[in-house]
Structure formats: structure tokens, C-alpha cells
Specification:
alpha/beta; Rossmann fold; 3-stranded antiparallel beta sheet; 15 helices; globular
């Protein structure tokens, strides 16, 4: 088994799993190319053939945090975050890591074991995730949305890091849930049970009252809850270290959006990179499943169909939810927008 110092010195050893009970990391030896190509670095990723090693997280406690802080893409789900992260990957300039399972485990550990347990392990894990394969290469991390409860912790631990909130407004989020049918509605309820552990006041509602809510009402609460966690992180980030971008705006105006993200993160990808991507096939394919065709126009058409099926109750649910979360920004009012409204 490779020793911890050898692993720490070699970015090919990727922390791909975390056991919150034993406080152990599993690391797999993976190439940069494999990391960049994998849609999600979670249980959907088959790395069973890779060389692996297991170490207590404490073995990496002395690993210094990176001199060049990673960039983070936080998101509200169904807003193009996977596509954006793919677009930002460029060997030698930036490595994009999409939804590492190790961060999901730490987010859940915070929920079950508390902030003190998290504080012992977040630093070593971020240090391992942030190692570039080549000198001067940036690392951008896109956690899954159930990791939004770590946004403030990350901002405090890495004060030089830059954070982007990529979001769908609440109407777009609800339509994304609705058009997925029963699986989407079940997913929204699952998210509610997760975010309810993050200390949101709405989680104190009596279970029998929650059971009276419709699936879309629950989904509306989910949107507000996950957004609140990211905005808490925005308050923890220093001035100029947090920005927001509407996911639909990104899909409709990809070239200026990509150039704005590049400039904000300081990745140095260049205008030519965005231009080549927009002219290529990446925006015509489903970012989660490149075998499937997709487009911004198709996304809009599907949303309109879902809105017609729901009818007037959609706007009523949105207004009802803002009554419970009056501090949530309205459409077009997210803090520090990258693109002018």
C-alpha cells in the first residue's frame, strides 16, 4: 500500500470515497484524462479497475491547503452546472471535478456528526482535491447540490477561493421537477429530507402538516433551502469572491457567459476557447449523457409544456413559498450577477 506522503505528493491519487464512520478515505489512482471525462465522480463512476489505497483522513492532516485556491461552482440543480464545468476544463489551464462523492459524504457527516467533525476533515480533503496535475493549472470543483451546506465552511477555510452560484429561478426549478414526472417529484421529497437536516426553520414544521403539502410545494421549499445555504456561503466569502449566473442565461448566451466565468475565476482559458466550444457539438448534446441530443430551445419548449400542464397553481405555489422564505431573492435579483440584467 502506498504511504500517505507518497499519495499526497501525487495528484493521480484521487480521494474518491469517504467513510464517515471510520473517518477513512479511499483513494484511487486515476489519470487526469479520466477525471475530466467522467460526468460524475460519485457512485456512477466505475473505478473498480484502478489501483486503490485506504488511509485515515488524519494521515493527511498536515497537507497544506493549496497556494492557488480552487474555484467552486455551487448550484440549485437542473441549471446547466455539469455543462458549465465541462466547458471550463482545458488541460494545462483548468481541471474540472464534477460532484466528487467525498464531498457529499462530508456534507452528510456535518448533518449527522456536527461542524466539529467536519472541521477536522474538510481541510485535508480539499487539499487533496485541489492538487493540479501540472504546474499553474487551476482546479474547479462542482459539488452536487446536496453539498450546498458546506458553502460557508469552504469560504471560511479558503478565503482566497472564488465561488459561482449557477441557478435556475424557482419557476424554472419547479418546471424541471414537474417534467420529470414521478421520479422528479420523488427526488424533490428526498432532497427535502436531506436539507431539513441543515437547520432551516421550515424543518420544524410538524410532519402531519408537511404531509398535506403537494409535491410541487415541497419542491418549492427545496429551492429556497438550498439557495439559503449557498447565500450563507456568499456572506462568508470576501468581497469580490462570489458571483451568480442564471443557468438559462448561460444556455441562451453561452459565449459571453463562459468568458465572464473565465474572467471571474481567472482561469486564463481565453476568448477563443469559448468561441470554439459554442461552435462545436457540446451545446447540442445532453451534458449528463452525450449520446442524447439537447438544446436550449428544446429545454424552453419542455418547460412551456410543463407550465401549461400545471396551470395557474404554479404561480400560486411560488408566491406561497416566498411567504415562508421572504429573504430569498426574486428572479433577476441574485447578488453579484456576472452578466448585467
Amino acid at each position: 500500500m502506498s504511504k500517505a506522503p507518497q499519495i499526497a505528493a501525487d495528484p493521480a491519487w484521487f480521494p474518491d470515497a469517504h467513510d464517515a464512520g471510520s473517518h477513512t478515505l479511499r483513494l484511487s489512482r486515476i489519470s487526469r484524462k479520466a477525471l475530466a471525462e467522467e460526468a460524475f465522480l460519485d457512485d456512477r463512476w466505475d473505478r473498480s479497475a484502478a489501483e486503490q489505497a485506504a488511509h485515515p483522513v488524519s494521515d493527511f492532516a498536515g497537507l497544506p491547503l493549496p497556494r492557488r485556491a480552487p474555484c467552486f461552482i455551487w448550484h440549485t440543480a437542473f441549471c446547466g452546472s455539469t455543462l458549465l464545468a465541462r466547458c471550463l476544463d482545458k488541460p494545462g489551464s483548468n481541471l474540472s471535478l464534477r460532484e466528487p462523492a467525498v464531498l457529499m459524504s462530508l456534507a452528510n457527516m456535518k448533518r449527522t456528526q456536527g461542524a466539529e467533525a467536519l472541521n477536522r476533515e474538510l481541510g485535508p480533503v480539499l487539499a487533496l482535491l485541489s492538487r493540479p496535475f501540472v504546474r499553474r493549472e487551476h482546479v474547479t470543483i462542482k459539488p452536487t447540490n446536496t453539498v450546498n451546506n458546506l458553502a460557508g465552511d469552504v469560504a471560511r477555510l479558503l478565503p482566497q477561493a472564488r465561488h459561482l452560484l449557477l441557478y435556475s429561478d424557482i419557476r424554472a426549478f419547479l418546471l424541471s421537477i414537474a417534467k420529470k414526472g414521478e421520479p422528479g417529484r420523488a427526488f424533490a421529497r428526498q432532497l427535502f429530507t436531506i436539507f431539513a437536516m441543515d437547520g432551516h426553520a421550515i424543518a420544524g414544521t410538524a410532519p402531519r402538516e408537511l404531509l398535506k403539502l403537494t409535491d410541487l410545494q415541497i419542491a418549492a421549499l427545496v429551492w429556497h433551502m438550498q439557495l439559503a445555504s449557498v447565500l450563507e456561503g456568499a456572506r462568508a466569502a470576501g468581497a469580490g469572491h462570489f458571483a451568480s449566473l442564471d443557468g438559462d442565461r448561460f444556455l441562451q448566451e453561452p459565449e459571453p457567459a463562459l468568458n465572464a466565468v473565465d474572467a471571474f475565476f481567472g482561469l486564463g482559458l481565453g476568448a477563443g476557447h469559448a468561441r470554439e466550444l459554442v461552435a462545436g457539438p457540446i451545446f447540442a448534446r445532453d451534458s449528463k449523457d452525450p449520446a442524447q441530443a439537447y438544446s436550449a430551445a428544446r429545454r424552453t419548449e419542455e418547460a412551456e409544456q410543463a407550465a401549461r400542464a400545471i396551470g395557474p397553481s404554479l404561480d400560486a405555489i411560488i408566491e406561497w413559498s416566498y411567504g415562508l422564505f421572504p429573504a430569498s431573492p426574486r428572479a433577476g435579483a441574485m447578488p453579484h450577477p456576472l452578466l448585467a440584467n
